[in-house]
Every structure is written in C-alpha cells, then in structure tokens.
Specification:
3-stranded antiparallel β-sheet; 2 domains; Kinase-like_dom_sf; Aminoglycoside 3'-phosphotransferase, Chain: A, domain 2; alpha+beta; 11 helices; 337 residues; transferase; Aminoglycoside_PTrfase; Phosphorylase Kinase, domain 1; 6-stranded antiparallel β-sheet; amino acid kinase activity; 39% helix
Length: 337
C-alpha cells in the first residue's frame, strides 16, 4: 500500500472509492503508472475491481465517456472479451473528484477486476498470433458499429507525432546533432510513406492504440484473453495496433518473426493486401518516434528510467535500416508451422 501522506493521487483514489459500494476495510493498492494511475481495490481477502485515476488534462469527460461507450459496445458484440466499467452510487460511469490542493477536477472510472496472467514481450511468439486475431476482431467490430452522436476520441495521425504540438512531446528533444539528421530523414520518409498509404475507411478507423501483451490478461481458468486499457483508443490506421504490440522493443531481432505471427493471426479473420503490409514498417517507426517523445515527458515512469539512452540508440539503428531498405518485407505470404 502507498503512504497516504506522500501521495496525493492515493488520497484521490480513496476519495473516489467513497462513491462505490465498498466496506470500510477496503484496501487501495497501486497497480500501474502511465498516463494515469490504476489502483486495485480489495476486500474480503480478494481483489474486487480497479479504479483508474485519470491524469489531469489528458482526456475530457466526453472523451472518457466515449471510450466507455465503445467498451460496452464491444462487450455487447461478443467479439473480444473486455472488462466492463462499473456504475457508482449515482449510477454514473465517471466519478468526478476535486484535488485537495486546488479547485481542479479529476476523473475516475472503476472496472471489473480481471484475475489472470499478464505476459511479457519475450513470451512465445504464438501469443502474437492471438494478438493479431484480437485486433482483427476488434477492427471488424468497429467497421460494423456506428458510434453514437457526440462520440469523441482523439487521433493518432502524422501531426500528432510530428506536428507543431505533438501529443506526447517532441521526438527531437535531447537528440544530439550527430543522430538528428538520420532521424529527421527517417521521419520525413515515414511521413511520405504513410501519406501515400492514405486514410481511407478501409485502412483507418477507431483503434485500441496500445495493444501490447501487457494489456492482455490471460484468464486463469480458461486461459482466454481479455483486452484491457482502452485509455489511448482513438482514430488511426488499423495497423497502428500492430505497431503498438511491439512497443519499446521494435529494434530487437525477434520482431520480424513476431510481426509475421501477428499477421497470421490477423489474416485468419481479416485479410491484408500488399499496400497494408508495406505500411507496417512506416507505422512501426511512427510509433517509435511517438514513444521517443513520450519518454522525454514521462521520466518518472519505470520503463523510461530503465531504457533511458538505450531507446534513442535503438531508434537510430532501426531508422538507418529503414532508410537503407534493410528491414524484411511482409508483402509476400507469411507462413509458419
């Protein structure tokens, strides 16, 4: 448990908890820190649900409501398993709380707790086939679904990574003058290639936008996957979900095999053409540059502390291979036993 005296967010999570039906003995424990903080709520000697405390200013109430609306739609479609949001005592999905030190409002949302196993990046490549299948099912659900009036989510377009006000920060911050020319050329080529790929409804729509193995919980009883953490969901290329699957280790030697496995799983449900497959590496680089900016603005997050300069060096290595056309092609059929 985190000390209430040193963590204002912990106090806010406890304040949010008062809006739900829980006994006084309920415990609040920090699970995860990223854009938001997620807390596990336990009582009667077992975890019951989680509370996600939203970072101030990252999402509006309407955007959070839209995320929850999509999750409910996915659940109703019986396509992909997702944890459902929980109503508070006012029969609302979003709880509004106020910071003790200011008049600023913060939002909190509760979700059913999913008991299971979280996998890491170096687990069996077979799990990437499952990721691909989950993504294809999700994309089919989106294409068949009509969002309600007032539905609002942000986008993950070129301007959101390379524009004047990149969402997660400028990728170039802290890049030394020797590395900058190579990285800038890669950014220009990624922009050109993705502009050529286009944003037609066939390739661009609502996506999860953080579909890593760590956001899939494998339920213990059935070992079936449940997709969590839709906080970054928004409008982007459908194959951006593939790029996010290899976040933080895009430069590793195993990645081409993992991508191949993901494609196999995806194409069991939804076919890709050569133009889609040729867009994979540009999208991987696009995500990599987004994360490079994110790491500059989130130094307190554990993975940023751990990777530090290593991530910039890996980005440079990947960018040079991309510029020299030395990354493997996925345009031909991918076959695995």
């Amino acid at each position: 448990m985190i000390s209430a005296s040193t963590d204002e967010d912990w106090e806010l999570a406890n304040e949010a908890l008062k809006n739900y039906d829980t006994p006084p003995s309920a415990k609040v424990e920090l699970l995860n820190v990223s854009e938001n903080k997620t807390y596990k709520i336990s009582f009667d000697n077992e975890p019951k649900f989680v509370i996600r405390l939203h970072r101030e200013g990252y999402h509006s109430r309407a955007e959070i409501q839209s995320e929850l609306t999509w999750i409910q739609s996915i659940h109703g479609s019986n396509t992909v398993s997702v944890p459902l949001p929980i109503l508070n005592r006012k029969d609302e999905l979003i709880t509004t709380i106020q910071t003790p030190s200011s008049n600023h409002r913060r939002f909190a949302v509760a979700f059913n707790f999913v008991e299971g196993v979280e996998l890491e990046e170096d687990d069996s490549a077979d799990h990437f086939e499952t990721l691909g299948s989950i993504a294809a099912q999700l994309h089919n659900q989106v294409i068949a679904w009509e969002p309600p009036r007032g539905f609002r989510r942000f986008s993950w377009r070129l301007k959101d990574a390379f524009g004047a006000n990149p969402r997660w920060g400028a990728w170039s911050k802290g890049v030394d003058k020797e590395k900058y020319p190579y990285l800038k050329e890669a950014v220009d080529n990624v922009s050109r290639d993705l502009h050529r790929y286009g944003v037609s409804s066939k390739v661009f729509g609502l996506v999860h936008a953080d579909m890593r193995l760590s956001n899939v919980i494998w339920v213990k009883e059935s070992y079936s996957p449940t997709l969590i953490d839709f906080d970054d969901c928004g409008y982007s290329w459908y194959l951006y979900d593939l790029a996010t699957a290899i976040s933080f280790f895009e430069h590793k030697d195993i990645v081409p095999e993992l991508i191949g496995r993901w494609i196999v799983g995806y194409e069991r449900i939804r076919k890709l053409d050569n133009a889609d497959k040729e867009a994979i590496w540009p999208l991987v680089l696009f995500r990599r540059f987004l994360l490079l900016g994110w790491m500059q603005t989130h130094p307190e997050v554990e993975i940023c502390k751990r990777l530090q300069g290593e991530y910039l060096d890996g980005t440079l290595h990947l960018a040079i291979r991309y510029l020299e056309h030395k990354l493997p092609s996925f345009s031909r059929s991918v076959r695995y036993p």
